[in-house]
Structure formats: structure tokens, C-alpha cells
Amino acid sequence: MVNLGVRRVEDDVAARHPALQQYAACQSHAFMKGIGTFLAGSGAAFAVQRMARQKLPYSLQWSLLLAAAAGSLGSYVVTRAETQKCSNFWIYLETGKSPQEFAVTGGLSQPAENLSSAEERDGAATLVRRNRYGDVVE
């Protein structure tokens, strides 16, 4: 078993995906960035509402609700963008191709150790199919 944050991952899964630790670190960073954005965005929205008290005569509970909604929206946008970067990073680490190149080939890839010479590449009739996580699909 390999520790990955607070979760334990089987050794064979960790061996099939050597970049799993880097992907988990990227995801953790993305979520922490989202939490920071929520706190900063909520605080900033609340401060703006408090400074504009004369023009926005909301009660305290409505000010807090609007600030939380603004912080949530900002947090969602930032977390989604960072998570997409992590997904692209994962695809690159697993396949060696950018996500755009990977999409053009249709997600089909061939392991390098199985097709080392030109003769073997010419004689290979079946391609190894992989799912979006990089696992071999039979």
C-alpha cells in the first residue's frame, strides 16, 4: 500500500500510474487555491458592501449571504480552471502527449516497450486501447 494524502492506494495501481503522487499534489493545490479564493472573495465582497452601506441598505444577514455567494462563485471558477490544468498534466504524464494531441489520436496509444522495432510496428495488427485514465481496455 502506498500512502497518497490520507488515502491508501494499492501497490499495483501506484506501479501502473507512476505520476499519481504528482497528480494528487496538483489536485490538492487546486483545492487549497479554491478555498483561499472563497475566503478572499467573500471577505472582499463583504468589505465592499460595508463600504457602500448607504447605497446598498441590506441587513447583515443579506450582506453575508451575498458575500458567501460571490466567494463561492469565484472559488468555483478558480477551482475548475486549476482542476482542468491538473487533468491536462495527468494526461501528459501518463501518455507523453498533450491533451490536444491525445484527443486527435482518439485516445489510442501503444506502449513503447511492446513496439520497439520497425518490424514489430508494421506487424502489429491490434492497437492497445486505453480509457481516459490511461488503463488498458481489452
Give the H and E element order: EEHHHHHEE
Specify the biggest β-sheet: 2 strands, antiparallel
Q: Care to count the β-strands?
A: 4
- Helix residue percentage: 55-70%
Q: Can you count the helices? A: 5
Overall, the morphology is: elongated
Query: How large, in whole angstroms, is the Cα Rg?
Result: 23 Å
Mean pLDDT, rounded to whole units? 78
What does this structure look like?
- With 138 residues, the chain is mainly alpha-helical.
- Helices cover 62% and strands 7% of the residues.
- Strand 1 and strand 2 form a beta hairpin.
- Helix 2 runs antiparallel to helix 3.
- It is elongated and about 70 Å long.
- About 12% of the residues have low confidence.
Briefly say what this structure is:
With 138 residues, this protein is mostly helical. It is built from five helices and four strands, in the order E-E-H-H-H-H-H-E-E.
Topology:
Elements: E1 2-4, E2 7-9, H1 11-16, H2 20-51, H3 60-95, H4 99-104, H5 118-123, E3 129-130, E4 136-137
Antiparallel strand pairs: 1-2, 3-4
Key phrases:
138 residues; mainly alpha; two-stranded antiparallel ribbon; 4 strands
